[in-house]
Amino acid sequence: MIFIIEEDIVNANDIDFLECLDHLLIGYKEGSHLLYIKPRVVENIHREYWDRMDIRTREQFTHYEEKFMYESKIAFKLVNYAIKIVPKDIIEKVEEKTIENQEYEIGYLHTDKFLSTSKIQKTILLGENPNDGDIYEIIANEYIKRNESRLKVKLKIENGGGSTTAPTFLKKIGDGDDICLCILDSDKKFPTDTSLGETAQRVIRETNRINMPPKLGFHVEKRVRELENILPLGFYYHQYYKDKNKQDILNGFEILDGINDRLIFFFDMKKGLKHFDTREYDDWSNIHHTQFVIENEPICNVDTFCNKKDNCKCVLIRNFGSKVLTDFISFYHCNDIEYKKSLIFNSLDYVLDEVWEDIGKLVFSWGCGQEPILANT
User: Fold this and answer.
1) Which of 73, 125, 182, 237 could connect to 155 by a Cys-Cys bridge, CB 3.0–4.6 Å?
2) What is the per-residue pLDDT across 46-55, written as a single tens digit (0 to 9) for each?
3) What is the DSSP annotation of 45-109?
């Protein structure tokens, strides 16, 4: 996260400013967050507060003066959210601003919110399921790699357990000191589906009911069904093309693409496509069962209405199972296939390219940091 200190808080004679500054400088030095203070504001702080600083704050502030973090200015071009420390007569809120022709959301927080050192720890990234946070961190790392930045993604990853994700996030609204970003699956079953999954609905409902503090953010990715649909299609072909049990799934991808190039982003990678889906959801209705390998019950007539819903045994496209995210993480961290990885990440479908760019920017905005600054540097 980029924390901004400007002249208004320096001139406010805020009783908590020095302790807040001290903690922000610690976080900056540890690399957990970035701190942006314009040169003229740095001079103003030195002039107004130097005599009141303790030894530790003076040492840290001197280091900041001598080695001003220009990367913080560079980072502004790569983020869309930052937090500004404001006087207590300004309401804590999130405001849209245009800075150098770029749109931002700026969260306003008071100095007393930084009296606890928990605020200067790494931002918590809360995913909906195990491995989610690791995937989002990968997407953010690819984002800064694309932009050739020396900055780092600094996150503390917490993964929810499906239905427990909403309570975990909502609890942070009430009594947590952490800075936290929560990313949720949409669970949309087809491209024109307007409904969201139960977890996303609950978080949206509760956050609309209260005034969510600027220290917390959440995002529901509505352009795909769930996280498995964000993974590059090239990964699926690379990972599973030798598996005879999954070759018909890859063939099914090509058929889906010929029908509607957006269907693949709403295909249930963990459960597959069943006859019920083609009868229940309009976007799947153009799919004819004869196009696919079918595993059907003898008593099932695939041309008639199916009322079995989740218990439907007529499989049109099989599933990849529940280990896709684990396989992707292993694939990403395998150093023996760097060339193949480069090809896959540089040839994303136009929809996925946009999704990766947006999620990468979002996660980096909340989790941007740097390498820890050593005492002798």
Assistant:
1) 125
2) 999 999 999 9
3) HHHHHGGG--HHHHHHHHHHHHT--HHHHHHTTT-SEEEEEE-TTSPP-EEEEEETTEEEEEEEE
